[in-house]
Amino acid sequence: MSIAFELHAAPGEALRALRMTVVALAAAGFALAAWLASSPWGGILLAVAPFACAAAWQRGGHGLARGRLSVDPAGQACWQAPDGQGAAQPVRIERWCVTERLVWIRFSTQLAGARRDTLVARGACEPAQWRSLRTWLAWLERGAA
Known about the structure:
Elements: E1 5-9, H1 13-36, H2 39-60, E2 67-71, E3 77-80, E4 89-98, E5 102-109, E6 115-121, H3 127-142
Antiparallel strand pairs: 1-2, 2-3, 3-4, 4-5, 5-6
Helix pairs in contact: 1-2
C-alpha cells in the first residue's frame, strides 16, 4: 500500500473568523476584569486591553504554515514553502491531533529545528487527500515498520 500524497496548506477564512472570535473573547475578558477590579486597576486594564488584543491578532497567524506537504511512498515527509520558494526540506512530526473535520500537525525541520504548525480542514482538500493524510498519520502512530 502506498501512502504517497501531496497537500497544499494555507490558513483559510474559517481560521480568520476563529482568530477574530478569540480576540473578541479576550477583549470581553479584559472588560469584565476591569469592571470587577478596583478603581485604579480597572482603568489600567482598560488601557492595556487594546494593545494586548492587537498583539494577539498580529501574532496569532505567524506560527501557521503556508506551503506544500509531500509524503513519499516510504512515509517520509518534506515541506516546501509556497510558490516553490526554496528546496523541499525533510520534516518530522512532533505532535498532531485529528478530529472529524480538522487535522493539526506540528512539524520540525530536521536541519534547523524550526517548527511549523499546519491546520488542515477537511473541506479544503480533496477526499482522496484527506484519506491519505489520515492514513499516513495512523501509520505513523503505529510506528513505521
